[in-house]
Amino acid sequence: MTRLHPRSAVVRVARGALQGAFFGFFAGSVGAGTAFLPALSVPLVAVFGALLGGGYALARYLRFRYELDGDTLSVESGVFARQSRQIPLGRVQNVDVEQNVVNRLLGLAVVRFETAGGSATEATLDAVDESEVDRLRNYVRRRERETAAESRVETDAARTGAGESDAGETTDDAFAGDDPGEPTGALDAASPDSEPDGDLLFEFGWRELLTYAVVSVRPAAPVLTLAGLPLGMDLVRVVLRFNADLVGVSAALRPWLFGSPEGTRLLVFAAVTLTQFLLLALAVSVALTVVEYHGFRLTRANGDLRYERGLLRRYSGNIPLEKVQTLTVRENVLMRRFGYASLAVETAGYSGGDQQSTQGVAVPLAARDEVSELARDVEPFGDLDFERPPERARRRYVARFSIAAAGLTAVAYAADSLVFETGYWWLALALFLPVVPAAHLRWRHRGFDLDDSVLATRSGFWRRTTRLVPYYRLQTVFVTRSPFQRRRDLATVGADTASSSSLLGGVARAYDLDEEVAVELREELRRRLTAHIAMRRRGESTADDADVGDDPNADEAVADDEAATGDEAMASEDPMETDDGAVADDEAATRDETATDDE
Amino acid sequence: MERLHPRVRLLWALSSVVRTTVLAAVAFAVDRFLVALPQTAIAAGWLVLVLAGVGRALLAHRIWRFELQDDALFLIRGVVTRTDTSVPYVRVQHVDTTRGPIERSVGLASVVVYTAGSRGADITIPGLRPERATELRERLRDLAIESEATDAV
Q1: Most A CBs within 10 Å, among B118, B124, B147, to test the A interface
Q2: Which domain holds residue A32?
Q3: Which of A8, A185, B85, B97 has the lowest tally of Cβ within 10 angstroms?
């Protein structure tokens, strides 16, 4: 078992001491203020707090040990409640590395291991040095490869069908795409440790980065800007005064500006100010994006996607291609106009929380054909030809938007006749103008396609989202019909996967299909799920090699059955066995068993 | 297709009475300690919600159906938005039977089927006789094993 890097102990003790001192100072002040403690007690309590905080941080550091051994990552932690956790490496979905400014100066990095189970990151190593990061990454990767290869050898031996395994390898090569020269054997044999860079798939230059920053509008930016305004209140006042001068509000009126009846001038003033505000928000948004995505690089090494990004806080991570659950292509109106798109690769590993996790990681912005090429690299699929919802769905959207417009008009009328009494409430009727185009656009951008290997669904005009779900990743399939849909004989088909982004409603949905089509689609998806799982089990995978190894083959089914039956019992009482013989069982067990052995 | 035990209507009606009563109690407390609310309105609201709950229970029972098909568990439910769900046995992670306090009092049990998915990660079949619930759980487990799940993720 190894400890984390000693330098990280210094950082953590310092942080703990600081927090403790702050809390102590606060508590001391409160005590001095209310309980009439002597004033001297404030620094004393603060020092005591610092000692306590620092000591606890040190104890935590000393208690935290980890080890990579065989197929398992073992982590021991906890000062009072002690925890020891074992994670089978085959189950690791992603390995993410984060370096904030302090850690970069110290040459340290935080490593996170994600598995499919659980609601939080399964293991966080805070922090280890950079060479250790590489060692961990390569080790995890190599073990995943080796276990895959081992069970594959067994599979092949059991099958004695050399032809089939050849076929398997040919597809691997085809899949490798960019580097067809590299033999598949290189994955486990040749040089898994080296290859620091791998193939560069995608890189952000300054131009792309700025383009991306401009077209990807962050909804949080205006809020953040608004929250930040009080910090520069003087400047804000100067600008407001300048605006007021610009529209020619007399000096005497200025103090009552917001109550003044100078309608048009006020309107211009508001418009100018709002424009300035939005420009500022845009600048903030651009700055945030630049800081977050500076130096973005996506590479592929050994069947992993690896990304790096960030100006101040650097992120990097590995996404094993064989763990990919869903691909999501997003294009907002601007991006579509200029032929750009973004691609997110989602695994079951991310637990949600920060934005980067929930969105999945891949290409923030690239030319559309580049994106589809990358997507095909990850999960091969053919040309997509989306089938739109029936025409009556469009009538439904017209009706729906009309109701919304009517509701808003009614509100405007009520507000006008009761409060403002301007008599201009009928202006709200203009809301009916965009109803038909909006309905048409919504209808036009919705659709689904049953490709040979993926289900593709698409929706959204402002931000069109295309989801590609490999059939063998489907979980449940559901068909919903709201009362309004039932009236028009429509239904929505949803295809759930284990992808973590679907927690936030990111399920692939084919909206407003004809009832019969929807039922047919449901049945077809079920059929294809079964067929594709069987295909992968036989090793006819088109997507990758490792998951073939993941699959326990039919001959071992009995042993697997036992493992699966014992699931719950095993999960609750015991972490994974780690000897090599247990590999097949590991694979058969459910994700619940990612072996957390909490106390 | 199999339907739920008729007594599930009683179960749902009772649960809605309990929920509504809690709500009414909160409203009453607000009336008592914070803002004055008309007592008759609270009583009327209680009655309306209870009646709605009972109506919903009756309808839900009429709609609810489930079936063990050859490759998936299939269920139909939903009073307002009607949903049918297919849970392929390959994707079943584990199966629970549960019995809440109200369920116990009317002598019923539920089966909960878990998948690794996220939207419908746990699917509950309520209103089963306890023996039937156990039997269903065992059956689902066997089907899940037969289907030889891989990672199930």
Answers
A1: B118
A2: 1-63
A3: A185
